[in-house]
Structures are given as structure tokens and as C-alpha cells.
Specification:
mainly alpha
Length: about 100
Amino acid sequence: MEEKFIALAGLIEYLLETVLTGVVLPEKYSVLIKRGLSLILGILVAFVFSFDISQAASLTPVTPTAGYLFTGVLLGLGSNVVHILFGLGSKASKALAR
């Protein structure tokens, strides 16, 4: 599941960078526009691939839609969040194994 999440997050970042190459955004709103597009793309990818990260954490969302939205937001936040999530997960696993 971790590999799939990383791959999809990378895909979103690549698509966003490719689409926005050469596009001039208003300086005042460029960060907001990029984050908004990233979140929309993340949610879209989660729905298209029926990907729900909460299942990996043994959580059961009220509806599948809630799981897809949660996963899409995480995907849209980018690789920093991916590294934080899985970095903490691997540290916790190692600590529990001791």
C-alpha cells in the first residue's frame, strides 16, 4: 500500500508541474492556486483508482467516499506528507518491534 501511495503522490506532483509549466499565475495567488489544484487532483486520483489509505490503518470510514476524500487530501498535500506519514509509520513499527 505504501508503494502505491508514494507512486500516486509522485504522479500528482508530476502532472501538476507538467500542466503548470509555462503558465503564468498571479504572484499573489500562485501558492493558493497550486495547492487547490493539487488537492482537487489528489481527490480525483483517489476516486479514479478507488484508493483508500484508511483501510491500511485498519480504519473503517462511514462511507467509502469519506475514505477517498481523506486519501485524496493526503495525496494532494504532496511528497512531504508522504515522507512524514511513512517515516513515522516505520519509526513506530521499529519501536514496537523492540
